[in-house]
Amino acid sequence: MALLKFRVREAAPASSGLEALLKGFSIEVMPRTAEKVADFRQLLPAGTRVYIAHIDGTPFEDMLATARRLRAEGFEPMPHFPARSIPDRATLSDMVARYRGEADVQQGLIIAGGIATPRGAFHSSMQMLETGLFDAFTRIHVAGHPEGNRDIDADGGEDEVMAALRWKQAFADRSNAEFAIATQFAFQAAPVLAWADRLAANKITMPIHLGIAGPAKLQTLIKFAIACGVGPSLSVLQKRARDVSKLLLPFEPDDILTTLAHARAEGRATSIEAIHFFPLGGIKANADWTIAHGGASAAPAAAT
Question: What pTM did the predictor assign?
Fold first, then answer.
């Protein structure tokens, strides 16, 4: 049977800057949302990196099945490894071995996780990296927070998160894997550009894979933004919510991505290597929008 080809929605030609920014985009799924997609090949360019979110309580077998399916359909699975949800080294070792052996997983997002109390031995991504269990991975991503993270820096600053990124940069420098920072989503370019400048000032050179919320209802985005602790750029959504004429229209990420594309063309934010989409309005809607705006030419960085 011939392979299905992903569908391209008719749209005005994307600017070269925006198309370049979207080249190599990635997208995130959860096992339960992936089950609703009949065939990812109808939606995404071949080889797209697909993060698999490990929400606390998700059975590992569901994560593994999603990774196997994505690999079989021609995509690059990148599962989350949330430290606080993993009880011990033996469990982590088994997860890594099964991902690699059964789904040829070569990439992972190593994070602390969203629960306050660790399930066992791990409370940080740095502890998991130090186990050496990811040494055979070709690519490792770690978390970044352009607008801060009050779970880590309760005062609203960024001393602790910046110290953690400096540690991860030093680890990356002595690792054979390609490292990058995958960020929380934002809705405004200015905080992202300022954060990229602060990373450079701290000698953090890991490329940035910037989190962007895909097209979704405004109410949906506000709910997720508040739950995820998105900071200053939340005001963009709140301002739009006051405009009754826009309240029922889907919010699309044109403005922030166009601003960032212009900034890159002017030599700023060159550390932003790729865009990572959170499909809060649905995988299909996100894929359609991205392809229509130039993402059809996406070709993720090859695993080495």
Answer: 0.87
